[in-house]
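Re: [ENG-882] Designed sequences occasionally contain unexpected residues at chain ends

Forwarding the minimal case from QA. C-alpha cells:
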C-alpha cells in the first residue's frame, strides 16, 4: 500500500531534503510550514505518518501543541519529532506525549528511513491486532460442501479481486458478514482496513456522524468517520435497508464521486473505499414502498450475491453442528460431546428460522445443559435431549419415547416399523441421497428403492430436496 508522509517544518530546505529522501524510497510526501497548513493537510490528506518539527517559527502553534492535537484526533498515525535545538528533556517530553521517536538535526538519511519503516510497521501491526480482537470468536469461513455453498464460494472467488460493489442478501443469521469478510480477504485490498457500519444499531441522528465524521475547527480536533477509516480498504454497510432516507441520499453522492464532507465541514474529503452492503429485506419491495432509494440500490447491487438459508442445505448441518460443539468445548473447557444419528436427523429436518446463528446457540446450549449418560454414551447427544420444537418435524423413530409399546407388536409389524423409521433417519442423514444411503446401509440402490416402496416411504418422507439429489445420482 502506498504511504503518504506529512512533513511539517518551517525551513523550506529541510522540507525539500526530507521529501527527496522519502520519495527516493517510494513514499509520497506533502509539506507544511506552519500549524494552520499542517492541520489542514493532516485532515484532508490522512497521512500514514507525520514528521514534525518541534520549533515552528512564526506559527500559531508549536510542534508539541500540534503533536497533542494530532494524537487526540488520530492516535493511530505515528509521529516522528525532529529538532535542531533539542534537549534530552524535550525528547523525553515528546515521547511521553505519544510521539513514536525523536530525531535531532542534522540526521543521517539511513537512520531516518529505518525509523520511518519501523513506525509504519508498528502502526500496521496495531491495526491488525485491533482487527483480530474484533473478529475473535467469529466464524470467518463458509462451512459445508453442498452445491449451494460451493456455488457461493465460486461467486466470491470471481468477484473478490475486482473493485465492484457487492450487495449480499439473505435471511438473518446466514453469515452475510462472513461472506463480506471473505470478499475483503481475497481482494487486492486485503491489507487495508475492513470497517463495519451497523445501520440497524445506530439511531438515525448518530448514523451520519459515524459514517462521515465531524469536522475539527481551529484547535478543536475533528473525528474521522468510518468512510475515512476504511480508506484503501473495505466498508461494509450492514443491514443497509435500515439506513434513513436522508442518509441514503448523501451516501449516493459519496459513492458517485468518492468524496464527501464531514459534519460541520465545508471542504471535500476524498477517499478510496470499496463498499459492500448486506440486507435481510427485499430491497425491491422497500423501493416500492418508498423506504429505500432506487438509485442507491443500483449503485450497491453492481454484483448481487444471495446467501442460502440453512434449511436449503441440510446436508451441511452435521459438519457445522459438530464444528460448533468443538469450538464451544475449547472456549469453555467442557468435555467434547458428539451427536447421535437420530439427533442429526432432527437437526436436518428443522426449519432453522434463526439459521446458522440459531444452530450455533443450540449447540452451545446442548454442550452445557444436555444430560449425561453412563459409560461411552455419556458424551453423546441423542434426539430426545433436543428441544421439542427441533424434534417435532423429524422422522418418527427420533420421536419414540422409552415406553413405546413396540414389544406388543407381532415380529413382522415391529420389524417393518423399525425398518421404516431406520431408513427415514438414514435418508435424512444423507440429505435424501439414495446412493449414499444405500452405500451406508449396505444395500443395492435398486434394492433400497424396492424396500422404500414396500414400506410406503414416500418422497415427502425423505426430504424436500430428495428428488433433486436423486436426479443428480443418475436416476
Amino acid at each position: 500500500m502506498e504511504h503518504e508522509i506529512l512533513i511539517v517544518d518551517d525551513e523550506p530546505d529541510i522540507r525539500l531534503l526530507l521529501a527527496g529522501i522519502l520519495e527516493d524510497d517510494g513514499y509520497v510526501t506533502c509539506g507544511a510550514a506552519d500549524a494552520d497548513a499542517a492541520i489542514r493537510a493532516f485532515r484532508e490528506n490522512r497521512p500514514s505518518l507525520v514528521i514534525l518539527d518541534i520549533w515552528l517559527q512564526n506559527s500559531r502553534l508549536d510542534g508539541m501543541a500540534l503533536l497533542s492535537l494530532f494524537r487526540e484526533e488520530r492516535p493511530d498515525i505515528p509521529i516522528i519529532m525532529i529538532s535542531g535545538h533539542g534537549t534530552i528533556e524535550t525528547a523525553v517530553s515528546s515521547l511521553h506525549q505519544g510521539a513514536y521517536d525523536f530525531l535531532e538535526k542534522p540526521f543521517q538519511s539511513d537512520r531516518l528511513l529505518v525509523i520511518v519503516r519501523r513506525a509504519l510497521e508498528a502502526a500496521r501491526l496495531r491495526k491488525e491486532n485491533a482487527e483480530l480482537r474484533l473478529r475473535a470468536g467469529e466464524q470467518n469461513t463458509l462451512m459445508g460442501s453442498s452445491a449451494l455453498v460451493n456455488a457461493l464460494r465460486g461467486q466470491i472467488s470471481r468477484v473478490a479481486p475486482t473493485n465492484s460493489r457487492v450487495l449480499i442478501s439473505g435471511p438473518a443469521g446466514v453469515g452475510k458478514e462472513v461472506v463480506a469478510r471473505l470478499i475483503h480477504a481475497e481482494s487486492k485490498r486485503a491489507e487495508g482496513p475492513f470497517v463495519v457500519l451497523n445501520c440497524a444499531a445506530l439511531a438515525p441522528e448518530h448514523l451520519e456522524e459515524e459514517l462521515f465524521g465531524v469536522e475539527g475547527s481551529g484547535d478543536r480536533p475533528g473525528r474521522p468517520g468510518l468512510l475515512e477509516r476504511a480508506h484503501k480498504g473495505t466498508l461494509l454497510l450492514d443491514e443497509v435497508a435500515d439506513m434513513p432516507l436522508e442518509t441514503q441520499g448523501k451516501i449516493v453522492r459519496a459513492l458517485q464521486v468518492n468524496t464527501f464532507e464531514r459534519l460541520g465541514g465545508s471542504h471535500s474529503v476524498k477517499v478510496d473505499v470499496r463498499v459492500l452492503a448486506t440486507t435481510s429485506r427485499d430491497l425491491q419491495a422497500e423501493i416500492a414502498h418508498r423506504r429505500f432509494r432506487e438509485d442507491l440500490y443500483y449503485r450497491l447491487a453492481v454484483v448481487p450475491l444471495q446467501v442460502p438459508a440453512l434449511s436449503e442445505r441440510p446436508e451441511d448441518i452435521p459438519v457445522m453442528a459438530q464444528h460448533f460443539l468443538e469450538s464451544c468445548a475449547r472456549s469453555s473447557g467442557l468435555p467434547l460431546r458428539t451427536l447421535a444419528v437420530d439427533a442429526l436427523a432432527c437437526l436436518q429436518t428443522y426449519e432453522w428460522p434463526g439459521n446458522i446463528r440459531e444452530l450455533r446457540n443450540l449447540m452451545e446450549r446442548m454442550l452445557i445443559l444436555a444430560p449425561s449418560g453412563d459409560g461411552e454414551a455419556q458424551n453423546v447427544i441423542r434426539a430426545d435431549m433436543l428441544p421439542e420444537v427441533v424434534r417435532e418435524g423429524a422422522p418418527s423413530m427420533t420421536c419414540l419415547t422409552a415406553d413405546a409399546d413396540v414389544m406388543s407388536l407381532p415380529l413382522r409389524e415391529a420389524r417393518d416399523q423399525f425398518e421404516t423409521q431406520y431408513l427415514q433417519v438414514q435418508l435424512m442423514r444423507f440429505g435424501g441421497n439414495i446412493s449414499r444411503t444405500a452405500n451406508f446401509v449396505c444395500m443395492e440402490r435398486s434394492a433400497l428403492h424396492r424396500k422404500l416402496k414396500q414400506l410406503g416411504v414416500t418422497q415427502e418422507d425423505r426430504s424436500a430436496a430428495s428428488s433433486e439429489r436423486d436426479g443428480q445420482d443418475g436416476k
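QA comment: On inspection the terminal residues look reasonable. The chain has 21 helices and 16 strands. Proposing we downgrade this to a documentation issue.
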